[in-house]
Write a structure and sequence with these properties.
This is Spermatogenesis-associated protein 20 isoform X2. The chain has 685 residues and is an alpha+beta fold. Helices cover 50% and strands 8% of the residues.
Length: 685
């Protein structure tokens, strides 16, 4: 629409004569987008972007829709026709339009701000939400290519999280074969995504989604929220399987972010566009131009290794976007190739009569050469906004990687675009990003966040997602070896979130602070889509915080989480697939006692990092890791105030030479253990 309509002189005349045109960046103002997207979805049964909505001067929506062609076509009114009809309706039926818009907003306001019917979620839903959701996903599983549903295929990480959580529950209840079957769906899906063209094999990271069912041809945009969540689920895949394929993909994502997406001060940029110029001086941009290759280009760059590379990545002279009728319906990529892996590494190495290791070395070197050539092309536009919520998601994955990746075998080799980083380097990235937000987007006096940063903080206040996702990231940062400062900040932010967004009467959190009269709806969001909902993440944050602190504060966190989930009981009961992460939260709160791993030892002791790695080496979402240095007065003071039991454990188990680990559950702790292998065995039981 940008090219077809908004750059068209005739459309501009119609717009400028009859309308005041306002372009909204939905990443900058998700609250404004939510109001009018909800209106279009309610009115027409579907939504999407670009979103075009016509408003009255007092901002009530009158009519709207998504994509409109410039002229009447395919049975759809063209944008020019629409503009004339809206102008005519405004001139002749103004009162009717305004009344219907006012009524629509009133009804949406009721529907989108439900209240809890009870103080807590019913026990039945708490116990069954995860399995109900998993069964519904299983019915839509694509056994040929992996993933759930058909084209276009989105990498919705919350689906994977739910299914992995369900597998863990099945194993704990002795249903091993069912658990393995469930888990195999997820691992096959993760492999399909990593092998597909949605994965940028040359530069690392993932594109937004696949237009076809086989993960091949993507919409080439790269979004930060995808990278953070995908890195986390590949880390989970590695914890569960110990297969370095999964850790490799996690590194691939994180190394792409380190190379291309981090500001010098530490904040992490939000996106890279899908389209770019094919060459300097080209008239228009093209989707995927930066990422696709002709067979001749590969021959020229790779020389003697071109044939090996082309066979590995299914490169053809005629172009390779032919695996599905959906891959390239308009023949835009004729003669072009989107790299995809379709064969096993070992089989391909055998075919070329070389070792698998040598084969991987050749591929890595080929990717490096193509990367260097690609750098000379015009790059897609970098959206250098630094958004708090999305940074929170990525802080989590960098922090977790710093400990989980220590479990890779010492003999593991890495090939471009993966860099041979020490896992601890990733913790530094997470801490720098958190520090950037604290120094640039947080007011120490009011304890409030701003939403985003670009050449300075934006005017937009933070939204629920900013608080919830950042708190989650800070909890992961602390649990994976960051200082207690990050835990303190997470607790402070939770207090501010409760003050600004919590509906103390009705339960759950609104998405906005409700102080801007121009934003007509204050919504309690529950949908776990491309990003999880702020309410789902908040419910899990509250459960986690309740297992860290003690006393009245812990009870208050749990009560808030219980009422939050009760607000969405109907949704959990009737449409669990819309809220997979909330289903996990519903189960977490029903777990009688969350496991706590308490590590007591000096921060200067090298063994602490090894023990932290062991603490995170077993997949268990219902586990909290606490580490405390009894020689630190700051840490001891914090724990004396927030959980004296932890402070007491630190005093009793102080050992100047060793790190002491205790695993506690149901108010009892294991005998202390002193080495990482013993801790891993204890957690694996």
């Amino acid at each position: 629409m940008e090219v077809e309509s908004f750059e068209d002189e005739e459309v501009a005349k119609l717009l400028n004569y009859s309308f005041v045109s306002i372009k909204v960046d939905r990443e900058e103002r998700p609250d404004v987008d939510k109001v009018y997207m909800s209106f279009v979805q309610a009115l027409y049964g579907g939504g999407g972007w670009p979103l075009s909505v016509f408003l009255s001067p007092d901002l009530k929506p009158l009519m709207g829709g998504t994509y409109f062609p410039p002229n009447d076509n395919y049975g759809r009114p063209g944008f020019k026709t629409l503009l004339k009809k809206v102008k005519d309706a405004w001139d002749t039926k103004r009162d009717t339009l305004v009344k219907s818009g006012t009524y629509a907003i009133e009804e949406l306001s009721k529907a989108l701000s439900a209240n809890a019917g009870a103080e807590k979620l019913s026990d039945e839903i708490s116990r069954t939400a995860v399995s109900i959701c998993a069964k519904q996903f299983s019915r839509s599983y694509d056994s040929e290519f992996g993933g759930f549903g058909s084209a276009p295929k989105f990498p919705r990480p919350v689906e994977i999280q739910l299914m992995l959580y369900h597998s863990k529950k099945l194993k704990e209840s002795g249903k091993t074969s069912e658990a393995d079957e469930n888990q195999s769906m997820i691992l096959f899906s993760l492999q399909g995504m990593a092998n597909g063209g949605m994965h940028d094999h040359i530069g690392g990271g993932f594109h937004r989604y696949s237009v076809d069912e086989c993960w091949h041809v993507p919409h080439f945009e790269k979004m930060l929220y995808d990278q953070g969540q995908l890195a986390n689920i590949y880390l989970d895949g590695f914890i569960i399987t110990k297969d370095v394929m999964y850790s490799y993909v996690a590194r691939d994502i994180l190394d792409y972010l380190r190379r291309d997406m981090i500001a010098p001060e530490g904040g992490i940029f939000s996106a890279e566009d899908a389209d770019s110029f094919e060459f300097e001086g080209a008239k228009g941009k093209k989707e995927g131009a930066f990422y696709i290759w002709t067979s001749d280009e590969i021959d020229e760059v790779l020389g003697e290794n071109a044939d090996l590379f082309k066979e590995h990545y299914y490169v053809k002279k005629s172009g390779n976007c032919d695996l599905s009728s959906r891959s390239d319906p308009h023949n835009e990529f004729a003669g072009r190739n989107v790299l995809i892996e379709r064969n096993e590494l070992s089989a391909m190495a055998s075919k070329f009569s070389i070792s698998t290791e040598k084969y991987q070395e050749i591929l890595g070197e080929c990717r490096r050469k193509l990367f260097d050539v690609r750098l000379k092309r015009p790059k897609p536009h970098l959206d250098d906004k630094i958004i708090v919520s999305w940074n929170g998601l990525v802080i989590s994955s960098f922090a977790r990687a710093s400990k989980i990746l220590k479990a890779e075998p010492e003999s593991t080799k890495y090939y471009f675009p993966v860099v041979n980083s020490q896992p601890e380097d990733y913790l530094e990235v997470a801490e720098k990003a958190a520090l950037f937000i604290r120094e640039n987007l947080y007011d120490e006096q009011s304890c409030r966040l701003q939403h985003s940063y670009r050449q300075g903080p934006s005017k937009a206040p933070a939204f629920l997602d900013d608080y919830a996702f950042l708190i989650s990231g800070l909890l992961d940062l602390y649990e994976n070896g960051g200082g207690v400062t990050w835990l303190k900040w997470a607790i402070e932010l939770q207090e501010t979130q409760d003050e600004l967004y919590l509906d103390r009467e009705g339960g759950a959190y609104f998405n906005t602070q409700g102080q801007d009269p121009s934003v007509l709806l204050r919504v309690k969001e529950d949908h776990d889509g491309a990003e999880p909902s702020g309410n789902s993440v908040s419910a899990i944050n509250l459960v986690r915080l309740a297992s860290i602190v003690a006393g009245d504060k812990a009870e208050s966190y749990l009560n808030t989480a219980q009422r939050l989930l009760a607000v969405f009981e109907l949704r959990l009961r009737e449409l669990a697939v819309a809220v997979p992460l909330m289903c996990c939260a519903a189960d977490m709160i029903s777990v009688p006692s969350r496991k706590q791993v308490v590590l007591v030892g000096s921060k200067s002791c090298a063994e602490l990092n090894t023990m932290l790695s062991a603490a995170h080496s077993v997949y268990d979402p219902n586990k909290t890791v606490i580490h405390i240095d009894p020689s630190s007065s700051d840490e001891m003071e914090f724990w004396e105030e927030h959980n004296s039991n932890v402070a007491e454990m630190a005093k009793k188990n102080r050992n100047s030479e060793k790190v002491v680990a205790l695993v506690c559950q149901n108010f009892t702790c294991s005998p202390p253990v002193f080495d990482s292998s013993a801790l891993t065995r204890l957690l694996s039981k």
